[in-house]
Specification:
Low-confidence stretches: none
Oligomer: single chain
Distance between the termini: 47 Å
Radius of gyration: 23 Å
Strand order of the largest sheet: 2-3-4-1-5
Helix content: 40-55%
Mean pLDDT: 92
Number of helices: 14
Shape: elongated
Length: 311
């Protein structure tokens, strides 16, 4: 695996604490999706449970490593969205899951070392679950490691956050991100990074999934609608059929570029009749529409209203 260079500093810091036998009982890995928090987690957990680690990394050959590879290590617990009684996946982590976890952590390690549990996404815990977890955080058992992973850490109660050693994953410097993307084999690293708003992990994944073509299509659609050439319902259908939230992200980017071009005295690439102030309002509506797509409202009606405002 091509370890991202922005992992080096938090990795070194964490391993230094391990060397001093000063690891915390709870970690919070926080930051936007796409920066490798989960890869960092797996690397750290494997090294922590390995019987013969080398500079904090797992050897890959010992019994512990083999059990981790098989997903059967008795001291490794993962907690995420569970299933309801009717077999449907939950949309949040509930209190019963945390209670079961706490009971599990109260038992001794089967290998005589660390017990490691990860909760991912931790920001999906409901209020009752978070309150139940608080007791476990306040009274940790010896050599128990709890790792919370959150894209939106602000959704966690302050009482939870304050009891974790926090590791923040922030967007790396542009040149560092571009060099990593090129090493990952991304052909048009600059365009991919711009599309992903400076997030290299998203840029890599989106480039591989054809997102750059969708980005170009979004701009063509907006230009056509602004000129009265496009059929709004046909555009709605295509957007809803293929990554609608991502297309709205690209629409917001296109409008931001339009405003920037006009502010510098150049012609806007979208040829929109909206003035700069109205473009700013439409930019806000795009982002609200992207959030609304997660809710119960019909996506086609949301997009039709948005395109009506655009025209």
């Amino acid at each position: 695996m091509n370890t991202p260079p922005w992992h080096a500093e938090p990795w070194t810091r964490l391993q230094a604490r391990r060397q001093r036998d000063a690891l915390p009982h709870a970690l919070l890995l926080a930051g936007p999706a796409g920066l490798g928090k989960r890869d960092f987690l797996q690397r750290f957990v494997r090294g922590l449970l390995c019987q013969q680690p080398v500079d904090g990394d797992a050897c890959g050959r010992c019994r512990s490593c083999l059990l981790l590879d098989a997903g059967t290590h008795p001291d490794r617990v993962t907690l995420s969205y569970g299933l309801r009684k009717d077999g449907v996946q939950r949309s949040e982590i509930v209190v019963d899951q945390i209670r079961e976890l706490s009971a599990r952590l109260a038992t001794s390690s089967q290998f005589g070392g660390w017990q490691v549990t990860s909760i991912d996404p931790a920001d999906a815990m409901n209020a009752a679950a978070a309150n139940a977890l608080l007791k476990t955080l306040e009274e940790p058992t010896r050599e128990t490691m709890l790792v919370l992973v959150a894209n939106a850490p602000w959704r966690l109660p302050q009482t939870i956050r304050s009891r974790c050693q926090r590791i923040d994953f922030a967007l790396p410097p542009r040149e560092q991100a571009l060099a990593w993307l090129q090493a990952e084999g991304v052909a048009d690293a600059v365009a991919a990074l711009d599309a992903a708003g400076g997030n290299p992990g998203l840029a890599r994944d989106w480039a591989r999934e054809g997102a750059l073509d969708r980005r170009k299509e979004v701009r063509k659609d907006l230009a056509a609608l602004a000129a009265g050439r496009g059929e709004a319902m046909e555009v709605v259908r295509r957007w809803l059929d293929n990554e609608p939230a991502q297309r709205l992200w690209f629409a917001a980017q296109a409008v931001a570029d339009e405003v920037k071009a006009r502010s510098s005295g150049q012609g806007g690439p979208l040829a929109s009749a909206l003035d700069v102030e109205s473009l700013g309002h439409w930019y806000d509506r795009v982002n609200r529409t992207r959030d609304a797509l997660r809710g119960p409202l019909r996506g086609d009606l949301l997009l039709l209203k948005l395109f009506g405002d655009w025209r």
